[in-house]
Amino acid sequence: MGQYYVAVNMDDMEHVSPHKYDNGAKLMEHSYVGNNFVEAVEFLLIDDEEQKGRWSGKRIVWAGDYADPEEDKNDNLYALADGPGLQMLIEASPSNYHYLVNLDLKQYVDKTKCPRYGEDNDWQIHPLPLLTADGNGRGGGDYREDNDYVGAWSRNRIALMKEPPAEYTEIIPNFTE
To answer: How far is CA 152 from each of CA 12, 41, 59, 127, 174, rounded to the nearest angstrom?
Structure first.
């Protein structure tokens, strides 16, 4: 069976569902650069002097319905985030925000460096859902390549910035199919 995902802000227990954006809920059905659901989550993560998204600097998880239960709870984050979720937010995030930043690990990813693949070299896996995935590998539609970065940012404070903080380390997860 396929595992379904929602994006969760753990600090406020808010979530966004891919279904609100007419996307499939399996991880690899929506985890690509240019996807409107992922861009809506990015919009919530914007952090700069001009604009601050309501999820910026919050603990983010791409919560799978097959993930383990939360500590001291009977349910996982997918089930705990039940309810209507945030409604349609935007159609696209601003294109000048290229840096996903992990405020806890002091790391960042430059989205423009995501590897391209496919017949015409026109596909790019978006790193945010995979970096923050909880439960990957337990259901159909999950990311199947061997990569230590899958889930490495889950439950960390994340922001989207125009420029990375100077003292942070760049990582290049190289997600491809």
So the answer is: 21, 18, 13, 11, 14
Place of tokens 């994340």: 158
Nearest residue to 64 via CA among 158, 11, 142: 142
As to burial, measured by CB atoms within 10 angstroms (0-12 exposed, 13-18 middle, 19+ buried), residue 86 is middle
Break the chain into its structural domains and give their ranges.
5-170
Q: Write out the chain's pLDDT in tens, 177 residues.
A: 799 999 999 999 999 999 999 999 999 999 999 899 999 999 999 998 888 999 999 999 999 999 999 999 999 999 998 777 777 666 556 678 999 999 999 999 999 998 888 778 888 999 999 999 999 999 999 999 988 999 999 999 999 999 999 999 999 999 988
pTM recorded for the entire structure: 0.94
